[in-house]
Amino acid sequence: MGDALRDYLNKSRLKPRLLEVKVQENWEQLMGKTIARYTQSIALIDGKLIITTAVGPLKQELMYSKDKILKLVNEMLEEPAIREVIIK
């Protein structure tokens, strides 16, 4: 039953939204309390993780850490769901 449900979710349109929620729920654990506190929003659209913050220095730090963020998020999701990280 679990495998059938997993297969259904993988093929359905719900999967991207479920992955987005999983990233949002685990963001503080992945990036730390300070970064999580100043991150305004996290969205997953067509394999692109869009991170929004209004704090200039944090934005710069995140820009330099794109590869690390990509790797951490994909490891947490246990699949290569993220292809690109965009900082706004």
Explain what you see.
This protein has 5 helices and 3 strands. It is α+β, with helices and mostly antiparallel strands. Strands 1-2-3 form a 3-stranded mixed sheet. It starts with a helix and ends with a strand.
Largest sheet: 3 strands, mixed
Point out poorly predicted stretches.
none
pLDDT averaged residue by residue: 88
Number of helices: 5
Distance between the termini: 41 Å
Number of strands: 3
Strand order of the largest sheet: 1-2-3
Beta-strand share of residues? 15-25%
Task: Offer a quick outline of the entry.
The chain is of the alpha+beta class. 62% of the residues lie in helices and 16% in strands. It has helices at residues 2-11, 14-31, 33-38, 56-64, 66-77; strands at 41-45, 48-52, 84-87.
Key terms for this structure?
three-stranded mixed sheet; alpha+beta; 88 residues
Itemize the secondary structure elements and their pairings.
Layout (H helix, E strand, L loop, with lengths): L1 H10 L2 H18 L1 H6 L2 E5 L2 E5 L3 H9 L1 H12 L6 E4 L1
Parallel strand pairs: 2-3
Antiparallel strand pairs: 1-2
